[in-house]
């Protein structure tokens, strides 16, 4: 994991990455900063874990690495967390050598608060869900889901970054101690908002839809994620004697589960309960923005990610399509969602949000029935009818309309520059978050101040 194998005079030698070893001068800098971090650890468990990591960097001993991972996994209290070391082995074709990466992250307090409110009320959501009584849990517990904001990244995590972290990799630690899984909230938000609002303007039907999205779209997205994860995946129960869905629903298990969790979110997004709980100040507006966005994406804009002629394969994309296409078709008689053609361009307009809310409820009831009973035939019909095939004319049109918005297939991120503000005694009173002027500027700055290794190691 943390060494390079070389042949010297016909003899194999292992050069270990550690203080005094390979990359030692850079590792000494890591140790210096970790020692400072250990001093301000939020609690003992966090401090002890950092201590083991320092020990590992000093010795390169893989037993210490295991001990560290156990301690890091168990250190779940506190508002700040991190990953730091030679962790993933994707860059080694043989899959042995770890690449250095580090992320420092702070709890997303706003999202945590929203999810706590939902979790505290999980039973209300279960009791009021449009499910058959037999499929409701008598004692439901909200799923724990963690969203953090990245404060800084380096090594393999930068400038191209993951959007989530699920570690440690060692399966025996995962089985014995568990694992930490976090979603990098500000990274995901940045990805979602990259590019201009021109694409949004291209695909919304009217000014009202645009305004709702601009005003409430982000809040609606956040609440949908929170409802999906905390309430959605926790909701419902299997009938006695029915096996797990990967046995009963097989290849459709994950798209059914993701669609069901989405539907729990959609059902409650347009609901005065959210306002009662203090999560929104205008439940109707937030709900409308959420429904507009879901339908627009599920019936049109997610097709941008497919090549013409391809079927929808990915589980989430499938579920967004079968949920949207099902409610579109079932509401057709009442004109719930209207397909509009204007100047050769297609738009979907929601005419009746109350009816759409009802339709989401009906489909939620049906997907929970499929899951509870393990009804393979029904899930196959649902997904194959609504979730896989793409309207070729519409797809070609969407790709054509999207052509004007060029965006790079991969994104790189600059790190915020964190500037401490001190009082007269030299104590830090606040940290100011500033932005570097440019990506090249930041890279040049890094090479000037943090270049600790020779050209050839
Ligand atoms: Zn999910």
UniProtKB/TrEMBL annotation:
It comes from Xanthomarina gelatinilytica. It holds the Pfam family Peptidase_M49. One of its GO terms (molecular function) is hydrolase activity. Keywords: Hydrolase, Metal-binding. This is Dihydrofolate reductase. It comes from the Bacteria. InterPro entries: Peptidase_M49.
